[in-house]
Request: fold
Amino acid sequence: MIRQFLRKVFNRKTAASASIAKLSIIPHKRHGIRRNQINPCALKITANLQQAGFSAYIVGGAARDLLLGLTPKDFDVATNATPEQVHQIFRRSRIIGRRFRLVHVMCGAETVEVSTFRGHSPADDDNHASIKLTDQHGRLLRDNVFGSQEEDAVRRDFTINALFYDPAKEEILDYLNGYEDIKAKKLRIIGDPAQRYREDPIRLLRAVRLASKLDMQIEAETAKPIGDLAPLLQNVPPSRLFDEMLKLLLSGHALSCVVDLRTRGLHHGLLPMLDVILEQPLGERFITIALRNTDERIRQNKPVSPGFLFAILLWHEVLSSWNALQTSGEKPLPALFKAMDEILSIQHKKLAIPRRFDAVIQEIWSMQPRFQARTGRKPFRLIAHPRFRAAYDFMLLRCESGELDEELGEWWKTFLSADNEKREKMLLKETSPKKGKRRRSRKKPSPGLALEPENSSTDENR
Ligand code: ATP
Ligand code: MG
Reply:
């Protein structure tokens, strides 16, 4: 009764959207996905649910990626069983989530997310307005609004993300022509584009990320309102915005995503200073080289820390503020710290970078001047710093972009791969008045500072 009432009040659009949905069933001989491409854990879960009399499918990114010949990141399952029913079937499972409850089913070390088909209601959209509505209307509206499979397809974001793969029958159920869109490499939003972006502005960023990651064109009607609706991102809770931004930067396609964000005017609320940076040739070169390098690392499964990425994106702003402060008479180090604080606080007002990343960003930046000091014990002390590797990689990017002399990077590369004897010989002569004093204090590095050659150092702190 209550569900019917809520549908009537809030669900006018569902009926309209659902009526455009027309089911087509794609047999194995057309789609070609083999059962052995499916994660065994997800396979077992769909089989058990089906044995218990429910319907169960592999959904979302997994079905899509398999059709595109990509390796899915995760395998999600959708079913008509309620979370409680799912939980009863799987001993190792737990119900999670408050606004929309789903079940985490564990098998071995893996966890598969099982969600019940959802209907469309403002209560389950993650936008600001609906959160308020949810609060006003109390718990009931926050409860799950379950729906039919068709409704579940319609409330998803893009047609290519709304396919259901049935591993038992080896069929794909497609209500929204997603299969054809995949084949045509078209990213098409489901329903009225402006309305769907308003419901959840994160979809603006998902459009950019998925198009880059999947090498697809954003279909014309889907693309049209993006620029105008960009300000809606201001209403998205900061933590969600940050998570999506991170997904984008760690997608392995950060460079094309950032370029596309800027082209579509979506960067204003995320990286307010991006325009200024990219308009300077040196800044543009730095970001391009650094993001290309990051994308490559991700493709090689090497770690990339979010702190490192934000240090990159903001560096040229810090640099210009640092230069300005020095020109106006400030000493180099205090000027650098002032510039760092200034830029981080401007950035925090827009895309809130969680404080836990600040320390890394600041360390990477504040270690930069120390690479210039190549006398006495300084290089040895620098190498012993726990964040050395990240700061060193950062310095090399600065050299490669033309901001610093290549010679500096080469010196450090040689220094790192040399043995201690060669390192001692490489140290530059002191030119400061304290020369004598420094010379006297020069001694062999202590075992604690003994350095590993470059290729044996880990990438952990990147
Ligand atoms: P990825 O490869 O990055 O995991 P994905 O499409 O699987 O891409 P998820 O965030 O894992 O992304 O979401 C799983 C599915 O949930 C999507 O394929 C889509 O069907 C649906 N979905 C995710 N976010 C939204 C959203 N903001 N609005 C509507 N549906 C969404
Ligand atoms: Mg996914």
Q: What stands out?
A: The first helix runs from residue 2 to 10.
